[in-house]
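Example 3.2
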Amino acid sequence: MEHTRRASVEGWRMLATVAIVAPALCFATMLFDMGIVWRLIWSVGVLLVSGLVVAYAIGNIRAGGIFICRLTDEEFFQLIPDPACGESFQVKLSDISKIECHEGFGESPSDEWYLHTKEGRYRITTNYGNPYRKFAETIQKALPDLEKIQT
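Structure, written as C-alpha cells:
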C-alpha cells in the first residue's frame, strides 16, 4: 500500500483554497448583522488563519520533493519533504509494539494515529491527503496481536 503526493501540488492547492475561502468568509459577514466590533474580530481571525495556511503552503512549495507513505509486508515508511508538516521515519513492522488512536471528537477527522516502538512514538501524518486511517487499519490487520490504545 502506498500514497504519494508532490509537496508543491499540496502547496498550490492550499493557496488556491485560501484565495477563495478567506475573501468569501470576510464578505459573508456583510450578510449578517454582527456589528462593527464582531465583524472586525471575525475578519482578523480569518486573516490570522489565512496567514498560517499561506505559510504552510509556501513551505511546501519551496520544499519541493514528494511525500511518500508506504506500507509493505516488512516495514512502514513515511517521507515528509517539509519538516514543519510532520516527521519522516521508517520502522519495521516487527518492531511495532503498540498502535495508538488519539480521538479528538470521536470518529471525526481530528483523530490521530501513532505507532509505538522501543525507540519512540511516531505519528502517521494527516497531511498531503494521506489516508492515515487506512494505513492504521491495514497495520492492525497485518499484526492482529498488536495492542491498541485509545486516548
